[in-house]
Amino acid sequence: LGQWGAAAAWYGLHAHLFLGGRAALGSLAQVRAQLREVRPASVDPASIAHPAGALASATYSIAKLAPWWERRQLLDEALRHLDVPPGRPREESVHAALRGSIWLRRGHPWRAVEHYRAALRLRESLGESPARIGESLSELGFACLFTGRFGAGRDLMQRGIDMLASGEVGFLIRAKK
């Protein structure tokens, strides 16, 4: 189910589909919840954790495509998925970045900046790759534009683009756009 959800995300199956990523992740969450109740001794607790980040990301992606009257409800649902404490620090940085994206989409750029800064601090403290830090810089810079801090936003985005040059092409293209 996890691989199905990941493949659906990369293929852009972000709609109310029975074969979409959200359907797979919802099923995965149910299976893992049942496993947590039984608590098999041989199973690593991290392997049966709630897929909060993946569910939030899938719900956020659907919200971007949904009609305006459904969008807020879906964004609120995505935030609720992130209420589950992350199991690892790297997941925490992903959750913070997702929160930033959700708040920006909801029209609260100051909250978005707060969460993007948290994601950046976490990634820097964990010694993540320049590409991951560049992604955070780019997102933070973009959110700063919506707070009226145009110079700071442009500078952060440029630093992010420079760091992204060493990583995945997809994030670099998005930052340049």
Describe this structure as you would to a colleague.
This protein has 177 residues and is mostly helical. The protein has 9 helices and no strands. The protein has helices at residues 2-10, 21-38, 52-65, 68-81, 89-105, 109-125, 130-146, 150-164, 169-176. Helix 3 (52-65) runs antiparallel to helix 4 (68-81). The chain is globular and about 55 Å long. The model has no long low-confidence stretch (mean pLDDT 86).
Give the distance, in angstroms, between the N- and C-terminal Cα atoms: 33 Å
Number of helical regions: 9
Return the string of H and E elements.
HHHHHHHHH
Q: Percent of residues in beta strands?
A: under 5%
Instruction: Indicate the mean pLDDT.
Output: 86
Number of strands: 0
State the share of residues found in helices, binned by percent: over 70%
| Approximate shape | globular
Structural class: mainly alpha
Biggest pleated sheet: none
Q: What does the radius of gyration come to?
A: 17 Å
Unreliable sequence segments? none
Quick overview of this protein structure:
With 177 residues, this protein is mainly α. It contains nine helices and no strands.
Secondary structure blueprint with pairings:
Layout lengths: L1 H9 L10 H18 L13 H14 L2 H14 L7 H17 L3 H17 L4 H17 L3 H15 L4 H8 L1
Helix pairs in contact: 1-2, 2-3, 3-4, 3-5, 4-5, 5-6, 5-7, 6-7, 7-8, 8-9
Task: Record keyword descriptors for this entry.
globular, mainly alpha, 9 helices
